[in-house]
Amino acid sequence: EDQVTQSPEALRLQEGESSSLNCSYTVSGLRGLFWYRQDPGKGPEFLFTLYSAGEEKEKERLKATLTKKESFLHITAPKPEDSATYLCAVYSGGYQKVTFGIGTKLQVIP
Amino acid sequence: DVKVTQSSRYLVKRTGEKVFLECVQDMDHENMFWYRQDPGLGLRLIYFSYDVKMKEKGDIPEGYSVSREKKERFSLILESASTNQTSMYLCASSVPTGGSSYNSPLHFGNGTRLTVT
Questions:
Q1: A81, exposed or middle or buried, with CB in 10 Å at 0-12, 13-18, 19+?
Q2: How many CA atoms lie within 13 A of B93 on its CB side?
Q3: What average pLDDT does the segment A71-95 reach?
Q4: Which of B94, B60, B25 is nearest to A95 (CA)?
Q5: Chain B CB contacts of A31 below 8 Å
Q6: Fewer CB near the terminus (10 Å): N or C of chain B?
Q7: In this complex, do A95 and B101 lie within 8 Å of one another by their Cβ atoms?
Q8: What is the rounded distance in angstroms from the CA atom of residue A88 to the CA atom of residue A103?
């Protein structure tokens, strides 16, 4: 059974204080790893897809990286508007059988 | 731009009622999904559909059914609502017609928060 574990559960940063969120996964044949951002009361918003170890993707202050066992979402010089819950999910094939982690709730304080 | 629309943001129903949650996507996507999201449990797949009139059970299908009569519309039905079905329900779609599941992320609606009293 595919498993996704995200850490920490919650993270509080000062504005400008860079940090990383972790997503560890156990899957039989990774076909893709997704990162999503979810604001309160809204659905998850797609950020990145990573396919193979060593791959990196960037978007504004966010950079996602992938190894064979985990993915990191690096946040550089965060701003208060980066506050959200960040979800990691893995896709192992079939009709898009996607397994989600519980998420990391990020709060960036001005 | 990608658009998944769920008909209600908030819904309050009584125990035993039959409840319909509607979802429409305008992206010509083949796959559609229903998830529920609960604190500490994350997103759990209820049902999905990869074609019109086709459906597959997800991880927690008990107490739910679905209907997909048209490509753009996917309905979730609670046959007899119970208090343990109080949750946030999220609809998603993916895979443009002719595309590949391999690189197609899920696109979510903004959810329906259902309360069963």
A1: exposed
A2: 25
A3: 92
A4: B94
A5: 102
A6: N
A7: yes
A8: 7
